[in-house]
Design a protein that fits this description.
Blueprint lengths: L2 H18 L2 E4 L12 E4 L4 E6 L6 E6 L5 E11 L7 E7 L5 E9 L3 E9 L2 E9 L9 E12 L2 E4 L4 E6 L9 E7 L2 E5 L9 E4 L7 E6 L4 E13 L10 H10 L7 E5 L13 E10 L2 E10 L11 E9 L2 E7 L5 E10 L2 E6 L4 E7 L13 E9 L3 E4 L1 H4 L5 E4 L9 E9 L4 E6 L24 E6 L3 H4 L4 E9 L7 E4 L11 E3 L5 E10 L6 E7 H10 L15 H8 L3 E6 L1
Antiparallel strand pairs: 1-17, 2-3, 3-17, 4-16, 5-13, 5-17, 6-7, 8-9, 8-16, 9-10, 10-11, 10-12, 13-14, 14-15, 18-19, 18-25, 19-20, 20-21, 21-22, 22-23, 23-24, 24-25, 26-27, 26-37, 27-30, 28-29, 28-37, 29-30, 31-32, 31-34, 32-33, 33-36, 34-35, 35-36
């Protein structure tokens, strides 16, 4: 990849991130009297007092923040005005005539709080608070309890039990407790603002029903709300950069990189806490982006793998001192995780998710990733079978790999080309790939047929492939032989006298007219004895697999017999080195 292209990609990435970092403030507009949620009275001091139960709902003064696609930062002072430890407060109801009536039962420690992610009166989340009641003076220490609930129709989920915290209030320091809530992609942080009145609480996977937020006012409750600030932030999601593993390898090989740049493997066995929703043999690339670094996902995700494509930003690192970084990370669901840090120790990068009390260990890749195309985890050969970008190879070549490249030694097509598996037959050892790369959308008309008829014993055949490419080089290799037996180890195979080796798997076997008649599948040797069998799957089984996934067989005019050089030059451009990671 050219350096200019990489620079353009990184600039585009920065622009996208900055564009999504917008936010706006919402001004709460409190209402008085009866409303759609509950009747409450608001006096000139901003105190809200419960009047009566309405439609079995305990929410009041809910307003629309327009936050379907946004996250919320909510900050306010929420003071309980009914905080006497041993006082019981009256509650009211409406009788059949609609008159307000005082109930016989009185309420100790009325419940109040904050609602968010609300759709209607039966679907919301809430942080509930109440006074526990102590022998201490109300002007000394107040024992307050809180809990977090989700109301979903008739089902109420209690995420936390009633939990106590002590709030000091003296005559010289009378203040309303500052309440703070941050909602990020189904994860909730609850805190007590600068005063830390309320301990940190983290809740995961809480359903957000809708775009409303507001005050919770239980029966007999009386609270004062002041200094309410609600910030609506655009949700930050992982960006797809378009960078590939090969492009990063080229960049690392051609640039003077810092110690943190390069390829990194996530050591999942060192994952301390499952809350991070990780799983799989991750491979990452870290690359400089201005004064920061981008962590680029390359392969290996096993949790929500469909959300992650090669080149997606998995995180960002911002240096704050030598060897230390501020970390932004995206979990498997794509939710942003902030307030984290990273520390570099040689070839080890430690990611600390402080709020989650979790750690991920990354180890720098020890293989020669600067020449990534010569160090695949598996390799073989493949050949084009349809103009729309379909390629055949062996099942055992691609088995267990999720990143596949096609390399061509012919200038007709770009190289490397990203591909993905669309069909596989493990019994007959056949797989079909489809190119998935913006560089190319197809191969054009193919100059050969794939035949279903069997060849005869003794018939002359050829194959093209890439045997032992790390040693013998990436030039395509040709071999000439005959069909030595109509049946190999099974009736689905030929036995051939072609010269093949490891890496020839998936090579096309074709006759003197260029008809594809089989696919090299195995080189068998029996211990140290001079027994060798070269096997090829009959192309009938490839045609059968193509039909199962709706790929039409190639049909070109039957050509005359060609010289060996003409034949090889015709087919070679459509034969690829397959490399798997």
């Amino acid at each position: 990849m050219h350096t200019d292209r990489l620079a353009i990609l990184l600039l585009a990435l920065l622009a996208t991130i900055n564009a999504t970092a917008r936010s706006y403030l919402v001004e709460p507009r409190w209402t008085t009297g009866k409303n759609d949620f509950r009747e409450a009275y608001v006096d000139k001091h901003g105190t809200l007092t419960d009047y009566y139960m309405l439609q079995n709902s305990d929410t009041v003064n809910v307003f629309d923040v327009g936050a379907d696609d946004y996250d919320l930062d909510i900050s306010l002072e929420l003071q309980n005005c009914h905080n006497e430890p041993y006082t019981a407060y009256p509650q009211y109801y409406r009788d059949e005539t609609g008159k307000k009536q005082k109930a016989k039962e009185r309420v100790h420690s009325p419940v109040y709080g904050w609602v968010w992610g609300m759709r209607d009166m039966q679907h919301y989340n809430a942080v509930l608070m109440r006074n526990k009641g102590t022998e201490e003076s109300v002007y000394s220490i107040i024992d307050v309890e809180y809990r977090v609930v989700t109301v979903n129709g008739n089902d109420t989920i209690y995420h936390t039990p009633w939990t106590s915290y002590y709030m000091e209030m003296t005559l010289s320091n009378i203040h309303a407790p500052r309440f703070w809530l941050q909602y990020r992609n189904n994860t909730v942080w609850i805190g007590g603002g600068d005063n830390n009145d309320i301990p940190w609480t983290i809740l995961h996977n809480i359903t957000c029903f809708g775009r409303y937020t507001g005050v919770y006012l239980g029966s007999a409750a009386k609270v004062k709300v002041s200094n309410a600030i609600i910030t609506v932030n655009a949700k930050e999601t992982p960006i797809r950069t378009g960078l590939t593993r090969t492009e990063l390898a080229t960049y690392f090989a051609s640039h003077r990189c810092t110690p943190i740049e390069g390829f990194w493997d996530v050591k999942t066995e060192l994952l301390i806490n499952n809350e991070l929703k990780m799983g799989g043999k991750y491979r990452m690339g870290i690359i400089a982006d201005g004064n920061e670094y981008q962590i680029i996902y390359l392969s290996g995700a096993k949790v929500y793998p469909g959300r992650w494509q090669e080149g997606t930003v998995k995180g960002r690192l911002k240096p704050n001192s030598w060897g230390y970084y501020d970390l932004t990370w995206y979990d498997a669901e794509g939710a942003v995780m902030e307030n984290s840090s990273a520390e570099l120790h040689g070839n080890t990068l430690i990611l600390d998710f402080n709020t989650y009390h979790s750690t991920i260990i990354l180890m720098k890749a020890t293989d020669d990733e600067t020449d990534i195309l010569s160090m695949p985890e598996g390799s073989g050969t493949g050949f084009a079978i349809h103009a729309d970008g379909y390629v055949a190879t062996n099942h055992h070549v691609i088995k267990g790999h999720d990143t596949i490249y096609l390399l061509s030694t012919d200038n007709r097509f770009p190289s490397p080309i990203k591909a993905e598996v669309v069909a596989s037959d493990s019994i007959n050892d056949i797989a079909i790939l489809k190119i998935n790369d913006s560089q190319i959308d197809g191969f054009g008309e193919l100059p050969y047929n794939i035949i279903s008829e069997n060849l005869k014993r003794g018939e002359e055949v050829y194959c093209l492939g890439y045997p032992k490419s790390p040693i013998l080089g990436e030039e395509i290799k040709a071999s000439q032989g005959i069909i030595t037996a109509i049946n190999g180890m099974t009736p689905s195979q030929y036995m051939v006298s072609l010269d093949i080796d490891h890496g020839s798997s998936g090579s096309p076997v074709f006759d003197k007219r260029g008809n594809i008649a089989g696919i090299i599948t195995a080189l068998l040797t029996w211990n140290d004895m001079m027994l060798t069998a070269n096997l090829a799957v009959k192309s009938f089984y490839l045609v059968q697999l193509m039909q199962q996934v709706g790929i039409a067989s190639t049909s070109v005019q039957q050509q005359k017999e060609l010289s060996s050089t003409e034949l090889i030059d015709t087919i070679a451009p459509y034969v690829f080195l397959v490399e798997c990671y």
